[in-house]
Design a protein that fits this description.
There is one protein chain. The two termini are 32 Å apart. It is elongated and about 60 Å long. It has seven helices and seven strands. It has a five-stranded mixed beta sheet with strand order 3-4-5-6-7. The protein has a two-stranded antiparallel sheet with strand order 1-2. It has 167 residues and is α/β, with parallel strands linked by helices.
Amino acid sequence: LNHMLYMPPFIRVLESRLVVHRIESSTDYRVMKANMEATHVESHADFHVAALTGDNPHQHFHSATATATPATLSIAWGRTLSCDAVQDGVAWFRFEQICGSPLSAEDYMALVEVNQLHTLAVSGVPRFTAELHNEARRFTNLIDCLYEHQCRLQCTAAAPPHELMAD
């Protein structure tokens, strides 16, 4: 769109018909918040990247779902999907379980809706190569469905998000 063509006249009309209150401050609270975050966390608008500590990357999910139990969750068309741990709207899958089998966007949508999930944890997301193009497509579909349903994603991955599909 050509914002520069229609915005200035629109702003002039608004300013002529409304009382404008200028709210100005020398403090940028967004920068202030970013500076308060830990230095080992890379912060972006849509994701946070933090280095995992310890030898076992799955330890993070085990501690978050300490009393969770394995379960079979419903997906589309009356089918089911095994899950390593489920508790109070949080489900944890290994990457191979959720993206290594032939699942569709419809399956991912049903997974979130039918099982009333608000957070999905996925461990072991690899760097995607040409040989993993099906898994990469499924992972992309999963991310889209989670976004559409405002479902959080927590994952461990072999690289930061912008490097996962670099090749």
